[in-house]
């Protein structure tokens, strides 16, 4: 870009910021470095970008006005919720020409309908607040994940977040009935339908869920609620291998059916790492087990019914040697302590030092083979590398992470081995017909790899959708899909 073009671009951005100030008010247009800093770095501190402004609209109408201004002044925008993402999807680039649109002021719970089992919420509502409101209505909002105290439902929808309840309730997509979206043209699509059956054409809702703000900005959603369970039984089971964990899963599904709401796999080293950095969280068994499963049953009948069912399951699992040992939570505090073990694994990894993280999925039946094969390949490539493997076994989603060898320098480990290990893991995932991103999204972290592993037909279809809905490529460019089509002004007609 020559000097005159650069000056015009700067003038255009300055005019855009001034126009946004007129719409939002000066207090909600942040340009000072101190004020914008929290919005410009992702949660893992892997990406830090620059922005011409951070904008905080208060309602969908203000979001739409900002988008229309962005289109007028040719400023790309990056939607952001709680900024807890792990793939850099809500972080602007380093050029300084993009604007972050934070949805945190859109934080109203608009409606709760207990008879329809739905809750209508704005994009900036924190996930834990939705759970609490549902609980107050004696209902369950089934999405649950480690960041629930700070992540926002708009971000959960934009990445199609998973969490610990997918086995029974599905991903965020399955929990959503309708959306309100600001399109790239600055229009508001009111698709807030609280219907479980609506067969009237293309499912626009599913286009926006998982699109990470590249096709439009989700401003509100109708989410499903479920009757609150009257009892839960939580336990830890020690097993010899991931193959045994798969046998145990099949057994648990046969005994419990829909009552099985959680089935989390954790490697021995994962739990040892938690104990190393959080002394109050002790290893739960007297003897070591290669794998531990955290399972939970949720019953709408009674605690006695749930415990009787669980006892029959464990008797069979122990008698057949599928499970080596088990510990059952006797009260709510113990149940929470078991879940705390699981949720502290990423925190313990952070305390241990920089590591290579993977959020992958493979068919459930392939998990045992995938872990064994890939562990062996990594051990050959990087002797001493420590595997921190955990995840949602019931839906095939593994957080397959690699820690530096004991005593090694984490930064040097990443510099020397990250690309090779990533490539190795992705090739294994591809060989098992899996996905390189299961629940964290692609963002900017995996967009190039996704373009490589998807078929040319699939890539072209994604690019066609992007080009049709966002022809000027102003909605979170560089995320999810690579598309370099020439932008054109709204008033220009295709030749």
Automatic annotation (TrEMBL):
An example Gene Ontology molecular-function term:
FAD binding
What protein is this chain from?
FAD linked oxidase domain-containing protein
Its BP terms in the Gene Ontology are: respiratory electron transport chain
**Family as reported in the entry's similarity comment:** Belongs to the FAD-binding oxidoreductase/transferase type 4 family.
The answer to whether keyword Cytoplasm applies is: no
Q: Does the keyword Flavoprotein apply?
A: yes
**Highest taxon in the source lineage:** Bacteria
Cofactor(s) required for function per UniProt: FAD
| Keywords annotated in UniProt | FAD, Flavoprotein
Q: Please name the InterPro entries in this protein's record.
A: FAD-bd_oxidored_4_C, FAD-bd_PCMH, FAD-bd_PCMH-like_sf, FAD-bd_PCMH_sub1, FAD-bd_PCMH_sub2, FAD-linked_Oxase-like_C, FAD-oxidored/transferase_4, Oxid_FAD_bind_N
Please list the residue ranges annotated as the FAD-binding PCMH-type domain: 47-228
- Tell me which species this is from: Caballeronia choica
Q: Which is one Pfam family of this protein? A: FAD-oxidase_C
Give the organism's phylogenetic lineage. Answer: Bacteria, Pseudomonadati, Pseudomonadota, Betaproteobacteria, Burkholderiales
């Amino acid at each position: 870009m020559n000097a005159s073009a650069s000056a015009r671009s700067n003038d255009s951005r300055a005019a855009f910021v001034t126009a946004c100030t007129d719409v939002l008010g000066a207090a909600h247009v942040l340009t000072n470095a101190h004020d914008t800093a929290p919005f410009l770095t992702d949660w893992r501190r892997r990406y830090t970008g620059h922005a011409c402004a951070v904008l905080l609209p208060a309602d969908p109408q203000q979001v739409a006005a900002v988008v229309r201004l962005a289109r007028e002044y040719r400023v790309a925008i990056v939607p952001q919720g709680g900024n807890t993402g792990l793939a850099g999807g809500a972080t602007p680039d380093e050029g300084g020409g993009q604007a972050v649109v934070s949805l945190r002021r859109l934080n109203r719970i608009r409606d709760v309908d207990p008879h329809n089992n739905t809750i209508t919420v704005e994009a900036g509502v924190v996930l834990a607040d939705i759970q609490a409101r549902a609980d107050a209505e004696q209902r369950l909002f089934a999405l649950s994940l480690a960041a629930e105290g700070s992540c926002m439902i708009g971000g959960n929808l934009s990445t199609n977040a998973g969490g610990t309840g997918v086995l029974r309730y599905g991903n965020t997509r399955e929990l959503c009935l309708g959306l309100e979206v600001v399109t790239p043209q600055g229009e508001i699509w009111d698709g807030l339908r609280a219907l479980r059956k609506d067969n009237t054409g293309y499912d626009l809702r599913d286009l926006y869920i998982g699109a990470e703000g590249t096709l439009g900005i989700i401003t509100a959603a109708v989410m499903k609620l479920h009757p609150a369970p009257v009892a839960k039984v939580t336990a830890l089971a020690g097993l010899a291998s991931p193959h045994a964990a798969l046998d145990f899963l099949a057994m648990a599904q046969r005994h419990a059916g829909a009552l099985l709401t959680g089935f989390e796999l954790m490697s021995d080293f994962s739990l040892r790492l938690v104990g190393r950095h959080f002394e109050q969280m002790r290893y739960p068994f007297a003897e070591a087990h290669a794998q531990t499963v955290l399972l939970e049953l949720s019953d709408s009948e009674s605690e006695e019914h749930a415990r009787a069912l669980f006892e029959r399951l464990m008797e069979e699992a122990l008698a057949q040697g599928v499970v080596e040992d088990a510990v059952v939570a006797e009260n709510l505090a113990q149940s929470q302590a078991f879940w705390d073990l699981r949720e502290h694994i990423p925190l313990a990894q952070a305390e241990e030092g920089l590591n290579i993280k993977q959020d992958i999925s493979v068919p459930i039946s392939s998990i045992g083979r995938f872990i064994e094969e890939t562990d062996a390949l990594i051990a050959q490539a990087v002797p001493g590398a420590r595997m921190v493997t955990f995840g949602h076994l019931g839906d095939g989603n593994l957080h397959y992470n690699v820690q530096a060898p004991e005593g090694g320098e984490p930064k040097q480990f990443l510099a020397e081995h990250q690309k090779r290990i990533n490539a190795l893991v992705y090739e294994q995932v591809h060989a098992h017909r899996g996905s390189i991103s299961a629940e964290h999204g692609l963002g900017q972290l995996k967009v190039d790899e996704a373009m490589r592993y998807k078929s040319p037909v699939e890539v072209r279809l994604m690019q066609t959708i992007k080009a049709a809905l966002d022809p000027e490529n102003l909605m979170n460019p560089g995320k999810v899909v690579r598309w370099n089509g020439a932008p054109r002004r709204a008033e220009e007609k295709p030749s």
